[in-house]
Amino acid sequence: NRKQTGVLVMSYGTPESMDDVEAYYTHIRRGHAPTPELLAELKGRYEAIVGGVFPLRENTNGQVAGLQDKLEQLAPGQFVCYQGLKHAKPYIEDGVERMAKDGITQAVGIVLAPHFSTMSVGSYMKRAQEKAAELGVEMTFVRQYHMHPKILKALTDRVVDGLSRLSEEMDGEGRVKVLFSAHSLPEKIRELDDPYEQQLLETSAAVAKAAHVKDWQFSWQSAGRTREPWLGPDILETLPGLAEEGVKAVLVAPVGFVSDHLEVLYDLDIEAKAAAKELGMTLDRIAMLNRDPLYMETLAESVIEALDSQG
Ligand code: FEC
């Protein structure tokens, strides 16, 4: 009777309802409640996306179920997945606690974000590790999977599809630029020798090459509303230069994200699209990975590999 291995699947988390937005925002701001203006603005953004729902919750649930299915195929009976969210319930610590309650003593942690930064994936890992140590669960982690051939293939297929959609829309005329993007982080990560920027450029270059795209660049998006400097240029600052260069259409490939959620459905589909239109350009976006089978395989294989390499 082999002992089961826990898999802590970690994701950003999203509010459960409009009433929950303030608590969620306060958690993101490390316990500091937002001003009424900031809160109203965030609620407005949620209301603007597909009917004011919180698609990230359903997508995360689907990804956790998809990963469980895939692991079951690859190693029947060995793995049990638990969810742990950064800013909403069930929190990362809740997930570890549930594993421990179920008698799990060995677990692998993986984050639903492909690129490593101390400020993103690193902070999920730290919280999980602290709770696991407290409860006597031995944990190992997948740090990144941004160059796994299957995630690259899934992203490449989406760029190819997106380009053919755009080309149809434009009757094959006019210059098209592919803009890879990811969530910005405070500029201070550069002082920490953080791999985040380099990993994002690696993914972008590999996908561009596989999709035979020559006209591409990388841009940041969704910087936080704080006073410190964030990595730039932001996509909204990049668009005017592209219009000046004669670009007629932009295909955004948000390779730092894996799900339909606010930062994609609002920041790109509403805000960036409107900015591009104002500049006389068409802006479109690749489909997100969500529960794509190749993404599920990337996660499952990365989990198994992390466990194997631990010995
Ligand atoms: O759909 C949803 O409900 C959630 C969308 C969402 C995702 C997401 C991903 C990342 N964030 C990252 C870093 C930061 C840092 C701050 C910050 C702030 C916010 C706010 C909202 C928000 N984030 Fe987020 N993020 C999402 C949503 N994020 C809402 C607060 C309002 C605002 O500033 O826009 C700044 C915190 C501070 O104030 O100090 C830093 C990173 C990711 C991608 C990796 C990951 O998924 O973990 C990094 C999705």
TrEMBL record:
One of the protein's GO biological processes: heme biosynthetic process
SUPFAM superfamilies with a match to the protein in the record: Chelatase
Name under which the protein is recorded: Coproporphyrin III ferrochelatase
The encoding gene: cpfC
CDD domains, alphabetized: Ferrochelatase_C, Ferrochelatase_N
InterPro entries linked: Ferrochelatase, Ferrochelatase_C, Ferrochelatase_N
Pathway membership, UniProt: Porphyrin-containing compound metabolism; protoheme biosynthesis
Stated family: Belongs to the ferrochelatase family.
GO cellular component, one term: cytoplasm
Cellular location(s): Cytoplasm
Keywords, ordered alphabetically: Cytoplasm, Heme biosynthesis, Iron, Lyase, Metal-binding, Porphyrin biosynthesis
Positions of Fe-coproporphyrin III binding: 12, 29, 45-46, 124
Organism name: Paenibacillus prosopidis
Entry EC no(s): 4.99.1.9
Gene Ontology molecular function, alphabetical: ferrochelatase activity; metal ion binding
